[in-house]
Specification:
The chain is mainly alpha-helical and about 90 residues long. It has helices spanning about 1-5, 15-20, 25, 30-40, 50-70. It has one domain. The chain contains 5 helices and no strands. The radius of gyration is 14 Å and the shape is globular. The termini are far apart.
Length: about 90
Amino acid sequence: MIYAVRQEMAATVEDVLARRIGLQFYSWRRAMDAAPTVASLMGELNWSTSITEAATNSYAGTIHHSLDSAGLSREGSDSLLLRPSAAE
């Protein structure tokens, strides 16, 4: 994650969770749970506490919008985790 910020110019929480490590594609809820940690590590960009909180809240809003658009609950078990199908 630090490498992504320092060397790959990752600039947002979503940039890290979706594009750099791909967690967002496996589980929206787990990515949202990781967002505060990612935002705090993005202190490499000299973010203030208010910027860190705003980045975390913005990312949570993005995930909530995705969950709402998909007709999924914001709470509960992680039904979004990709699992191999029975046919595989």
